[in-house]
Every structure is written in structure tokens, then in C-alpha cells.
Amino acid sequence: MLDGYGAVLSLRAAGTSLVLDTAGRVPRVLHWGADPGPLDDAAAEALRETGGPAVLNNSPDVPRTFSLLPSEFEGWAGTPAQEGHAAGTATTPRPRTEAVRHRSDGEHGGTIEIDLADEITGLRTTMTIALDRFGVLSVDATLVRDASLAGDGATIPYTLDALRVMLPVPERAVDILDFTGKWCRERAPQRGRLFYGSHVRRARRGKPGHDAPFLVVAGTEDLGFGRGEAWATHLAWSGDGEYLVERLTEGAGAFSAVLGAGEGLRPGEIALADGDRYVAPTALFVWSDSGLDGLADRLHRRLRARPTHPQSPRPLTLNSWEAVYFDHDLARLTALVERAARVGAERFVLDDGWFHGRREDNAGLGDWFVDRTVWPDGLSPLVDLVRSHGMQFGIWFEPEMVNLDSDLAREHPDWVLGPRQELGATARAQYVLDLTRPDAYAHVLEQISAVVDEYAVDYIKWDHNRDLSEAVSGYVGVDRPAVHEQTLALYRMLDTLRARHPHLEIETCSGGGGRVDLGILERTDRVWASDCNDPVERLQIERWTRMLLPPELIGSHLGAERSHTTSRRTDLSFRLIVALTAHAGIEWDLQEADEDELDRIARWAGVYRELRGLIHSGRIVNADLADEATAFTGIVAQDGSRAVYTWARLVTSAPGQSGRVRFPGLDPDTRYSVRVRNEFGQASRHQAADPAWITAALQPEGVTLPGSVLAVAGVPLPTLNPQQAMLFDLVRLA
Ligand code: DGJ
């Protein structure tokens, strides 16, 4: 570690860089974006010299600074980085740098650590800014109360109201893209102008929510999947959160706007007495000049490089939920397991309904032991059958929840999270269990662990079906906000289970995709992206979920012909293609499938096994198409040797022809064998005949085309009927 105090420091990796000036009271960003290359002394000095804005009329008499902890002291009149007080005092933070440590890995990133001390708030802050080798920045901040800094004032605990990480973005970032949604329609994009003022997105549900901002992007006007410049942030946290894009007329230092994120804190939730510490969730920042796919590529590479990233082939999964719901009948489930085996499933997951008192969705949560009325011999008969077919066994829990109609709630009514005076409304007939209580926490942990041990469970589907509202804990005798501690308890429980059961995989589910964030993904292996298996909806949900997560982390299941959540009917071939390009599975009562359908599903399972190595390691590319009724998404092997593309049409549209559509991500200087994979069905077309080259690509031997034609000129694609898709399989030729 070099002491870098006072210097211009840069972190560089994969074509991006962050440059900080550490000479001022608090370091400030001189540049975040494209890598200007190694900075010699003259260039570093020039960046510093040009790092200050004009002194405007009717403004502070010194140039405004926008530092890493922007405050009013610096003339920043926007949202402050830190808000809080000590009983109404210490409201104007003035941190000052005490030490800077810089570790550079050359062109492969590095770390800058900054220690700051604040005599007004009596807080010591450490910020750690790391750029990984893929160009993703992470910012971690820790506050420690140190009474000796502030004299008398620091004997009163400091109430932290907010700690935000904010980075500046340049004037060409004129658009904002982020996400919203609802149950069964997660990650719906919304895009608009970056106007003056604050675009603030809050998650106040005790989880990111179905409407989570997910990834907040500031971008250039031309931003698309494969074009434009973008700056984005994601908060790796599963509790309350806040995202911000803000633009003041005076700018932000030498920049124009800011992009930030931080935990959402409830009043009084964090009170720091002398020696107490607050660790903020990691905020990630990523820049790309190759569009949204460029952002996703950096994030995917980062995730795939984690030691905990799933390495084994992602097993084709059959989940019992939409097949049997609460009808846990051994004969019925036996038939389902047999059919799962027949089509080639590799993991069988027993969903909700197996535990004590759980005959419908209004009872049982909290009693995590097998219901002997429906399972007189325990789960062994089923588990043994599953294993006899060589499948893994998975099971559903909703550990953070409780029904009042449960042994647990009857014995421990005070374990329910909520005001002691009177509980608010139930949601899905349930409340939240107060896991900040050591007794409640231990009870649930041991019950789960016992089931995992008894049945050698391979996989848990970890559900969470309601918002945390009025989430106060009375454990310490008074009701105190508890989302922060509840989230940490969840993390602790997941970490403990994984340590105890090293082979256990866990899926994060929250009524579908209501808790998809990189905090929980540090401790889970898959997300259930949505309760909606309707491929029309799912295609869009997953396309945007992939902005953050690579396909191997996204569960996608083949549902019934008539979707259980939208009532829409779709063809099997379309459903199969949409479920293929993820961690694939089945969520359908296969007893309803006829022999032909079972054969097609089995062939699809074979294609999944054949292609999953590519799907689960390749680079995601999306074509920017004028016709929004269509989508063209590819997954290209990192070495370019193979690729799959999905050409899909959701609804009809005016154009009769696709025109020449380019295959993004291919090498123009080589040739490809292109084949349409139609083993599991044909897409129905809205045309008299395919473009001639498609006719050739439909043959088993495929057609050979130059990369320049596919990637640069483009090729006409068939005009599909609505709710149809076609899968292209490309192999690079020597
Ligand atoms: C909500 C989940 O998203 C579903 O997949 C299913 O597990 C149900 N809960 C079970 O209650």
C-alpha cells in the first residue's frame, strides 16, 4: 500500500478508469469513464487543474467542489452524502482526510482506501473504492463513532439518517433508465430525460421489491443495447434502499449530475454511541461505451469470477408448484417424478405444502417439520424415488415468515415482527418473523438444518412473500425499526446454512423476483425471476434481469399451455425456447402432457444439456431493433467459437419484413455454420415462404455464411406470427 495522500490517483481496468484528486479536504472525482491511459505527472496535473468549475454569480466565493462525501460545507446544495444528528446537533458533517492508501494493479484495477475524521459528528469514515479487472467499481463505507473526536457532543449517540455513495456524471448523460414492476412483471424498464431536480427511487418494503430500481443507468441519448455511453449503479443489499440521479443548475463540481445509492434507513434505526460501527452495503458502479450490453458484460464477468459462483452444470429442474400446488399426495407426486425423469429432469423441487399444518396458504409458516397427515412416512418415499432416478432433491422454505395459525406463533406470539400494541394487516395471511431475536433465529435455523440433514437436501427454494411493513422489533423492550438488523440476520442465516451444508444450493425467491440483488446473491445460487411462466412476459422479464445477472443465475421454467398467472395460451415451442436460455426448468403438471409433448420436452432437455455450457458462460448480446414487437438476443461463447440467438416476436407489427438484421457479437472476419434448432417444434410464420437462406439453415447440416454478412450487413429473418420464437445455433468455422 502506498500512501497516496495529496496525489492524483487512478484506477484502470478493461478500458475504464476512475481518477481521484486526494489533495483537498475530501477526495474528489476528476474522471470516471473511458480510460485515458496511464497518467504521467503532466496529465495528472492537467486533470487536477481542470477539475474545478467556474465561480458563478450569486454563489459561494470559491469554486464548488463535489467530493466523495459531498456536503453543504463544500457548497453542494443537492442531496448530501451523509445525513444525521446527535439529538438535533452535529447536523453539518465536515469530514477531513486523514490517510489515503492506494494499491494499483496496473491495467487490472486496484484499490483506494480513504480514512476520514469529522470533529463535528464525531465519526471516523473509511471508504474503500475498488476497481476489479472487469471494470466494475465497488464502494464500501464504514462509519465508526469516536467520541474523542468531537469532545462533549459525542456522548450523545449519532443518529444516522442516510449514507449515500454518489459519483458525478458528465453533461452528455441526458437520459435515465431504471426499472419498476409488480408481481409477475418484474424489471419493467422505464426511460426518461434527466431533468433538473432529483430522480429518487426508494425501496421501503424491507426488500428491493418487485418494483426494484435494480440498475439505475444515466446514459447518452443514443443509448441502446449495443450502442451509447452509460454510467450505472446497483446496491448490493436486500433491505430498504435508495437510488438517486440528481442534477442541479450549478452542476456537481466540474460535472453535470450525480448518480448514487445507499441503504434506506428508518428514523432512529442506526444510532451510533461511542465505538459503534455502521457498515454500509456495497454500492457498485459501472461504465460502458458499448451500450447496455457492455454494462451487463462487465457485471457478468465480475459475478462469474467469484469463488462462490456455481461451477457445476446447472441441473434441469422440475418444480412442483404449478403442477400440484398444495395437493401433496404421494401417488400424484410419484407420477410427477416419473414424468420428470422421463423428460430428463435432473433436480426435483418440492415446493410449498409439505410442512406441518400447511394445507393451504393461511397456516403453517414457522413450523418447519414434515406434516404427518399428508406424509405419514415422512418425505423419504418421495426423496428416495427422486434419487433413484439420479435427480437431486430440493425443497421450499419461507424462513422469515410466520402464520398466526402455527404452533410457533401460538407458543411465541411475541416473535412476530411488528408494533407490540397491535399488528397491522396480514399479507397472504402471514406476518414476518422477528429474526433479530436470537431465540427466533436459532429456532428457524435449527429446524431448516434438521430437514436438510435428514433428507440430504441439495437445494432450497427460499421464498419471501410479503413486504415488511411497520417492521419494528420489540425485543429490547421498546419497538425499534428492524429492517437493517433483519436483513443482516437473513444474511447470517444463509451464511450459516451454507457453512454447515457446503453442498447446499439456495434459490432466492420473493413471490417470484421480488428480491434480486447482489447482496443476497453473495449467498444464493439462483433467482426465481418471476412467478410468471408466460413466455411473452418472461422473455421481457429475463431480458432485463440479464442486465445484472448472467443466465446461469436466472431460473426459467416451462409452464402449462395456458399460463397460470396470465391465462394466455402459447405454443410449446415458444415456451421451450424462452425457458432454454437460462437455468432451465419445468413448472407444469406433466401428467397433462401427451406423448408427443413429452418427446419434444425430452428433446429440448437434450438441447439444454448440449448448449448449457455455452449459455452459462457466454456473452449476452441484444440487437437494437426498430420494431419493438420483436427481440433478437444472443449468447456468444467467450472464445467466439459458438453462439445461440433467439429471434422472437411478441405481437404483430406494421412491417412485413424484418429487413437485414445484424447478429451482434460475431466476428466479421470468419465464417459460421448457421442452423435453426427445431427439434422441439417449428415457429409458426406470417409469410408464404422463408427467406431462402433460412430454408438452408433449417437443414441438419445448416448453411455457411461469412461473419461480415451476419454481423455487419445483416440478414433477413422470417416474419413470425405473434408469440413465436426461432433458435439459431452458430458454429465458427476454422
Ligand atoms: C411464491 C413463489 O414465487 C412460488 O413460486 C411458490 O413457491 C409459492 N410462493 C409457494 O407458496
TrEMBL record:
UniProt keywords, alphabetically: Glycosidase, Hydrolase
A GO MF label: alpha-galactosidase activity
InterPro entries, per the entry: Aldolase_TIM (IPR013785), Alpga-gal_N_sf (IPR038417), Alpha-glycosidase_related (IPR050985), GH (IPR017853), Glyco_hydro_36 (IPR002252), Glyco_hydro_36_C (IPR031705), Glyco_hydro_36_N (IPR031704), Glyco_hydro_b (IPR013780)
Stretches assigned to the Glycosyl hydrolase family 36 C-terminal domain: 634-728
Glycosyl hydrolase family 36 N-terminal domain location: 27-270
Name this protein carries in UniProt: alpha-galactosidase
Domain of life, source organism: Bacteria
Biased composition regions of type Basic and acidic residues, renumbered to the chain: 95-108
EC number: 3.2.1.22
Coiled coil residues, start to end: none
Hydrolase among keywords: yes
Positions of region (Disordered): 77-108
The reaction(s) this protein catalyses: Hydrolysis of terminal, non-reducing alpha-D-galactose residues in alpha-D-galactosides, including galactose oligosaccharides, galactomannans and galactolipids
